[in-house]
Design a protein that fits this description.
33% helix; 439 residues; Rossmann fold; alpha/beta
Amino acid sequence: METILHTPAMEAIQLSKIKKLVKHLYDTKPYWRERMENAGVKPEDIQTLDDFSRRIPILDKAERHRLSKECGGDLAAVTDLTTAVPLEDLDMLAATSGTTGEPTPYPITQNDFEWMAEIWRRIFWRMGIEKGDRVLQAFGLSMFLVGVPAVRWFTDAGACVIPVGAEAGTERILKFAKYFQANTLACTPSLAGFLPEKAETVLGEPVKSLGIKRIICAGEPGAGIPSVRERIQDAYGATPYDFGGPMGISCDHAEYQGIHMVAEDYLRFEIVDPQTHEPIKIENGATGLYVVTTLEGEGFLWFRETFGDIVQVFTDPCPCGRTGIRMKYIGRNDDMLKIKGSMVYPAAINDVIGSFAPRVTGHFRIVLDEPPPRVVPPLKLKVEYAEGMAQSDLAALSGEIQSKMSGALKVRPEIEWLAPGTLPRATKKANLFEKTYEA
């Protein structure tokens, strides 16, 4: 597939699979047939990819919440409605973390396992992971898609997996990485950033001594944020790879180039206007809300579904030499803050603060006194200064951060300084918000 990613030949493959999927859902699943009929579309109306993008309605979080309410909170019932197969065909049920509300179910059939295993083979091939490489799996094992299901995909892709899981805690993760000489670490960027802080205490030596060569990061922005990426590279002497979106992986180029889409024959990727849902052409630099369709999904079915992520796409050749379009996360629609007309995402704030390491630890919180997205200026931040920083130097550092953030994001924050280690460290997704209005 490497030679035909993002080509007319690939579009022909996608269209063939989309026609088959649309007809199957219309003929066998009442929920999907009703959605199509309400949109005034029948399977025979989908003759081009543009027809699909303009005629099939988008499924978003609001619709999933409505379904859950209609089903009395019974996620099994919601799953039965929204999959492409009966519930009895499922082999496994995973879910999102549910950190921002009710979890989204990820039902998986044997066929789903097989096509996703093929995607992971491509991802591992691009990362240089071969038979005999040892991958320490430190994502949350319980229920998460990158938990137990990923352990199976990693082994199917040819790796030897050490399934420790984030639940085991940092001490066990570090010790097992050393005991079994893992050369690859799979975890959230937050955990990858936390382990170096614990390594000296747990191992008596820096995390770099483990010999980790590569880190698969997923679950939150981080590996694509330059300052965060640099801290991880420096701590481990390893290459961070950013996994996400519709099953893609970043490359090993020294400068982050975005996530390469490696599975266009299994997933159809689109971007649309966040407000109108009008399709936006995939061209270099275009930005929009990403929408994805699993072309062979049975239990694991995304059918023009969005999870609220704003992305930027790149179609120009990547300097790494690999093919395929690339995408970079800008932020989650739900997390966007509006401050005096400026739209600001936590990832952008993270990058600015992180760029001041080693004078800061990189850990911070955005303090919200009212429900977002509107923030009455000034934006309030709690930021940890680093060990060895003199209190007398913090005022000047505040000015530097305010100046850089004003230039980059058009926002001049109010900064409250915290001692190093004040904020809790995350082993899964980091929570960057402190919502005082919920107290």
